[in-house]
Please model this.
Amino acid sequence: MLITATGLGKRFQRDWIFRGLTRTLRPGSATAVLGPNGAGKSTLLNTISGQLLPTEGTLTYALAGRPVAAEDMPRHLAYAAPYLELLEELTLRELLRFHTRFKPLRPGISQEALIELTYLEKSRHQLIREFSSGMKQRLKLALALYADAPLLLLDEPTTNLDTAGVAWYQEHVRATRPGRTLLLSSNVPAEYAFCDEQLLVTDFQAARGR
Model:
């Protein structure tokens, strides 16, 4: 997924979250969106990906040399964030069947393989609401990392993960990033150490509040 942002800005009421952003994100790139808490990292990530409309500037998307309309972007992206909820009244097996109807897994990855990759074999028939916070986060990450989508969005990906969970994330994000465009919102170096590009939100806030 090729994303081109030109003069991009996002404002809520009279406050500019960021302004004047021009950037090209290319397939195979991994960009860390950085900044202190409350700086607007998630807003910037969601605007660049087309989930929020910009206040000013333009965004264009292309896949395999063909333009993609902003309204068609949801089918091309996979997203994991602590604030995105899972359907907790479903079991793991039911959730996977439901989720993959709308967001298929990558070729060669079955629902059963995903269960094994996340070490949730003993929880196949367990309700999601009974999962620990770490199990839920690992599942959210796996659904995004192994989705058949060229654009991958990760927001604070190691939230609720213990040391073993962080190592699991690092292993699987590296395994699934080739060829994709990856945007990662974070202020934890262990989450984005592999990224080859950085985008600091505060660099585009000179006009904030004006």
In short: The chain has a mean pLDDT of 94. The first strand starts at residue 2 and ends at 12. The beta strands are 2-12, 15-25, 30-34, 56-63, 66-68, 77-80, 151-155, 181-186, 197-200. The helical segments are 41-48, 92-102, 111-117, 133-145, 163-176, 189-192.
